Amino acid sequence: MQLHSGYILAHSDMPGFNREEQCFIATLVSCHRKKLKPTSFPVFSLYPQRMLLKLIALLRLSVLFNTDRQPAMLLLNTQVKNDVLVLTLTPQGRENPMLTADLASEAKQLKKIGIALHFH
Predict the structure, then answer these.
(1) Which helix (H) or strand (E) holds 20?
(2) What domains are defined for the chain?
(3) In tens digits, what is the pLDDT along the chain, a chain of 120 residues?
């Protein structure tokens, strides 16, 4: 689904966006779930590649923590320094095996793009 959404954004008429901006948004949407394939990421002249990768990481974590899917507040604090994200979970978050498994899987995906994800 996310690849299809990215395709639609990449090939739609989007007044107000130049082609590179449109491609940037399409790339973000295409990468918001499932496996990351960094070799397929386009190179942009308007945006640093690290910006794209950091935005992908933040969007993916936002989807993972979507409160509509979660019964309680699970994230207490977020710290970011360079390419390291440290998440402090609430007690409910630490006790949620599905969340911790999702975060462990996400840490492996983000490692592919040079971003370390730690959670406790």
Answers:
(1) helix 19-30
(2) 2-119 (1.10.3210.10)
(3) 556 677 777 778 888 989 999 999 999 999 998 999 998 899 999 999 999 999 999 999 999 998 666 667 899 999 999 999 999 999 999 999 999 999 999 999 999 999 999 999
